[in-house]
TrEMBL record:
GO terms of molecular function: lyase activity; metal ion binding
Record organism: Rhodocollybia butyracea
Record keywords, A-Z: Glycoprotein, Lyase, Metal-binding, Signal
Protein name as it appears in the record: Polysaccharide lyase family 1 protein
Signal peptide annotation: 1-23
Database matches in InterPro entries: Pectin_lyas_fold, Pectin_lyase_fold/virulence, Polysaccharide_Lyase_1
């Protein structure tokens, strides 16, 4: 299970900014410098607001938040996080903790650590310009072992974000625009995530980026830049792209990447035959990007400890909040069909899951 204690090491040798500690043991990438909060606060209520609620917990900076309750928190309005907080969703009693219905926002905030939290926006959202998780103009943010589903505008919106890591997380089944994630500015690290059934943006990244050991399933467009003016570098290592029923062009695993971009691509695989067997072939041609002979980021090769095939097995076994709930079990089982099932949806209810598609937590 996740450890809450922080370890003190030097990050200079890793090519990251010099700080005294990782966000948590095993944290990787540019968001691992997030310091979070230290003042204990326990969430004791599933209510939307009031004493002891999640909204109350995140209303002041400096807090290290744990949970004495489990289940869904139904948000009646968007919730804004404060800077310098740690959200330890993994501390909730089984079956875990989640928020549903409205946006969770870290916009313009800094030093936030979020682990083991389910964020499920869905059709209860009344503003189609909101995303499941928004960290626009934020800095030093890490999401780890989270589950983001049913995003409306984007699943993860990170325009203007600096020093971001999203790791070991599920980003799946967006509705509305049907987009995975949109990140600009950076640098950013996407590590060992499971991306499922999005039209595009898995992610869209207008930033210097590490993209390592991810699994992308049933995409219409996968790793995307879509910017003919921006000049960025991309380390794309040991990822697995797997087509599904909604995939119209397997070659859109990399999408709208032009010669303004530079890419180091190694060990990536594409399984395009939808035959129910994991049997991908090499997929290291990144549009018309300039080919780099070595990674642009000094830590990329040390992070990429798994081959694409090993990453698939590890992601299937470990990704997302623990224990897996009804929604994440459905998502993972869809991927395990290896091309046989899956669809890009417009409403979570079409999944057929309980609680109008949100699942029972």
């Amino acid at each position: 299970m996740y450890q809450l204690k922080r370890v003190v090491i030097s990050l200079v040798a890793l090519g990251l900014p010099s700080v005294s500690a990782l966000a948590f043991p095993g944290a990787v990438g540019f968001g691992s410098i997030a310091t979070g909060g230290t003042t204990p606060f326990v969430v004791t209520s599933l209510a939307d607001s009031g004493t002891g609620t999640f909204r109350d917990a995140v209303s002041e900076s400096g807090r290290n938040i744990t949970f004495a309750v489990s289940g869904y928190i139904v948000l009646e309005s968007p919730v804004s996080l404060s800077s310098d907080i740690t959200i330890n969703g993994q501390t909730a009693p089984s079956p875990g903790i989640g928020v549903m219905g409205r946006e969770v926002s870290a916009s313009s905030k800094t030093n936030i650590i979020i682990r083991g939290l389910r964020m499920r926006q869905g059709s209860l959202e009344t503003d189609d310009g909101k995303s499941a998780f928004n960290m626009g103009d934020a800095s030093n943010i890490i999401l780890d072992h989270c589950s983001v589903a049913y995003g409306v505008f984007d699943s993860v919106d990170a325009v203007g974000a600096v020093n971001v890591t999203v790791s070991n997380s599920i980003i799946a089944l967006p509705i509305g625009q049907q987009f995975g994630a949109h990140l600009e500015t950076g640098p950013a690290t996407w590590y060992a995530n499971l991306w499922v059934s999005a039209h595009n943006r898995q992610p869209l990244t207008k930033a210097n980026t590490q993209y390592i050991n991810n699994v992308v399933y049933n995409y219409q467009a996968g790793y995307t830049v879509a910017n003919t003016g921006g000049v960025f570098s991309h380390d794309i290592i040991n990822n697995y792209f797997i087509t599904g029923p909604s995939t119209t062009s397997p070659s859109d695993d990399y999408f709208q990447i032009d010669d303004n971009q530079s890419a180091f691509a190694s060990g990536n695989l594409l399984d395009s035959n939808k035959d129910g067997v994991l049997n991908g072939v090499a997929a290291n041609t990144i549009g018309s990007a300039i080919i780099l002979s070595k990674p642009w980021a000094s830590t990329s090769l040390s992070i990429a400890t798994l081959t694409a095939a090993e990453a698939y097995a590890s992601v299937i076994a470990n990704v997302g909040a623990s224990p897996r709930d009804e929604v994440d079990t459905f998502i993972v089982s869809t991927v395990e069909s290896l091309g046989k099932v899956g669809s890009i949806i417009t409403n979570q209810d079409s999944t057929g899951l309980s609680n109008n598609g949100y699942g029972t937590l």
